[in-house]
């Protein structure tokens, strides 16, 4: 039987070759003699694999994050780089890798997991579910001219990796109240945001009275140099947000299109003189999964108005420790969650429970579009006070 274990540094070429073939088969892998020769971006994360003896059958990478959920901070395991070479496919290896990964997360106290799927249906069968949406705004830079008509108190300057400490508060403020908004380490700022790519991004900030109030991270398309792709546009307040849009507008003589990855609640179309000049595309977000129901439900911050007890029958065919009934009791925003042998008040799959947990689903939506069934309207109302919907944005790519 295959064994699950870390991929050692001396197997890095083989590990990279499997991932390269899976995700970028047209790009050859340049061999390296040691991990030290890799760009730092490529060294982040914990490498894992399934082995048959010494043969590496498939791969995955784990990232250890801290994220926000309903106003609190929680550990989260990010899963990436799941790949199998063609000769090893259709043998159930990925299912085994995912089960082993969940078991490792649980042992490490990581009761949440997230990933960016190549296919939503594939990972849904193993318990991950869509969490939030992203909006892509695209327009001619002239459509942002309204931002130049506002007060111009903000001053722009180029930022570098040594500015991460002043950028962290901006990032946190921009995600206030949002679930799955990641906290970044210094390592992540330096090796994933500022550097480590083939073409490092431009990063500019806006300051008022010497304080950083917002920043943008963007590329200019290498193909034609006429599209500005904004990966992050984060601001502490509305004035700083308008300053950043003004900065983007100032590129009207340089680019033909501005493409901004942002939040669904941004009022760009309302601010523009012609709303039709701003194209808005809703894109499904990442996927989230509760790894350990008992720990996760006990650790969540609940609304102070949430009171009562509900017995949940949870279906989880991938993580057997979750496939059980749990009594969730909440009082004054504090919860306990224990296994019980009682008739359930509600039945729910791990996918829908994960979406309720972060706020992607309301209880009403979970009953309609998910697979939540309740024994009474009273139970539904109790769950609704415990799990009101929230904005959800998986803010980090990995």
Automatic annotation (TrEMBL):
InterPro entries: Acetyltransf_17, Acetyltransferase_Eis, Acyl_CoA_acyltransferase, Eis_dom, GNAT_dom, SCP2_sterol-bd_dom_sf. The keyword Zinc does not apply. The keyword Acyltransferase applies. Keywords: Acyltransferase, Transferase. It comes from the Archaea. Its EC number is 2.3.1.-. SUPFAM superfamilies: Acyl-CoA N-acyltransferases (Nat), SCP-like. Signal peptide: none annotated. GO terms for biological process: aminoglycoside antibiotic catabolic process. One of its GO terms (molecular function) is aminoglycoside N-acetyltransferase activity. Residues 2-151 form the N-acetyltransferase domain. PANTHER family: N-ACETYLTRANSFERASE EIS (PTHR37817:SF1). This is GNAT family N-acetyltransferase. It comes from Halococcus dombrowskii.
């Amino acid at each position: 039987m295959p064994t699950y274990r870390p991929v050692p540094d001396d197997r890095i070429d083989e590990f990279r070759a499997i991932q390269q073939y899976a995700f970028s088969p047209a790009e050859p892998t340049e061999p390296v003699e040691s991990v030290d020769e890799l760009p730092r971006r490529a060294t982040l994360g914990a490498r894992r694999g399934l082995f048959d003896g010494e043969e590496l059958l498939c791969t995955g990478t784990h990232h250890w994050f801290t994220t926000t959920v309903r106003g609190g901070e929680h550990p989260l395991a990010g899963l990436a780089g799941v790949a199998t070479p063609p000769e090893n496919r259709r043998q159930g290896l990925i299912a085994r890798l995912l089960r082993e990964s969940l078991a490792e997360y649980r042992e490490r106290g990581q009761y949440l997991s997230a990933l960016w799927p190549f296919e939503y249906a594939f990972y849904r069968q193993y318990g991950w579910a869509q969490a939030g949406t992203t909006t892509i705004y695209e327009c001619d830079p002239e459509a942002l001219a309204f931002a130049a008509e506002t007060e111009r108190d903000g001053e722009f300057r180029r930022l570098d990796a040594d500015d991460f400490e002043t950028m962290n508060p901006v990032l946190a403020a921009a995600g206030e109240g949002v679930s799955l908004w990641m906290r970044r380490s210094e390592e992540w700022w330096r090796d994933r945001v500022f550097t480590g790519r083939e073409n490092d991004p431009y990063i500019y900030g806006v300051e008022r009275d010497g304080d950083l109030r917002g920043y943008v991270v963007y590329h200019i398309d290498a193909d034609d140099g006429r599209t500005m792709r904004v990966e992050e546009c984060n601001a502490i307040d509305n004035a700083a947000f308008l300053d950043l849009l003004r900065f983007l507008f100032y590129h009207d003589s340089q680019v033909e299109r501005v493409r901004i990855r942002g939040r669904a609640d941004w009022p760009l179309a309302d601010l523009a003189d012609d709303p039709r000049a701003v194209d808005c595309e809703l894109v499904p977000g990442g996927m989230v999964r509760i790894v350990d129901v008992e720990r996760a439900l006990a650790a969540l911050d609940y609304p102070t108005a949430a009171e009562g007890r509900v017995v949940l029958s949870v279906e989880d065919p991938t993580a057997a420790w979750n496939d059980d009934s749990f009594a969730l009791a909440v009082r004054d925003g504090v919860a306990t969650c224990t296994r019980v042998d009682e008739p359930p008040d509600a039945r729910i799959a791990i996918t829908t429970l994960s979406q309720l947990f972060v706020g992607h689903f309301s209880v009403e939506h979970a009953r309609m579009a998910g697979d939540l069934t309740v024994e009474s309207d009273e139970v539904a109302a109790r769950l609704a006070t415990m799990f009101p919907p929230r904005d959800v944005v998986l803010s980090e790519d990995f």
